Amino acid sequence: MFTLAQNVSLATGVLALCLGLYSLWQISSINRLRKTFFAGRSGADMEGIILSLKEQLQDSQRQQATLEQSLKNTRDILSFAVQKVGLVRFNPFQDGGGNFSFSLALLDSRDNGVIITSMYGREQNRIYTKRILAGGSDAPLTKEETEAVAFANSKNQEPRAKKISNRKT
User: Fold this and answer.
1) What is the DSSP string of 58-114?
2) Global confidence as pTM
3) Region 102-131: what's the mean pLDDT?
4) Are residues 70 and 89 in the same domain?
5) Measured between alpha carbons, how far is 144 from 87 in angstroms, rounded to an integer?
6) Quick check: 90 and 116 in contact, CB under 8 A?
7) DSSP string, 5-49
8) Residue 16 pLDDT > 90, yes or no?
9) Is 116 exposed, middle or buried (0-12, 13-18, 19+ CB in 10 A)?
């Protein structure tokens, strides 16, 4: 029959034939895929499209970086704007006059700002201001001013003004 060398050669030949047929099948599959993918377009068109998309992506990334920097600058600027408001109305005098007096706290995001207090009486109206730094003041705060600052710092600021009290101080 066949010698060992002939059997090995035959097995190697059959294996080579199988690998060749498999390679042809793979090449045929890739060619079908290529024809489907590039249908109606040449390779140069696809390269141009890819380069155009790359440029658009780079432009979008530059615009995003610019917008992010602009947003950061806007946030920095707005941190100094009035963001917290607290209003307390009260009656400071025993002789009536109604709740026409008020303390208004206007604070930024760092709890810096001003308190405006108006004390209304029948004969006169006085307005005082006190500077607020980091939520506190160099000048002593009245009870109503302290409440206005606390209300400005509270998370629930709806409605914007505290309910009118009929307290007498």
Assistant:
1) HHHHHHHHHHHHHHHHHHHHHTTS--EEEEEEEB--TT---S-EEEEEEE-TTS-EE
2) 0.53
3) 87
4) no
5) 9
6) no
7) HHHHHHHHHHHHHHHHHHHHHHHHHHHHHHHHHTTT--HHHHHHH
8) yes
9) middle
**Rounded CA separation 132/121 (Å):** 26
Amino acid at 44: A
The residue with tokens 């602009």 is 70
d(CA 78, CA 41): 52
Termini Cα distance of the chain: 123
Q: What does the pLDDT look like over 78-108, one tens digit per residue?
A: 878 888 888 888 887 766 667 788 899 998 8
The domain of 65 spans 46-78
- Which amino acid is present at 30? I
The verdict on residue 168 lying in a domain is no
* R_g of the chain, CA atoms, integer Å: 40
Same domain, 66 and 88: no
Total structural domains in the chain? 2
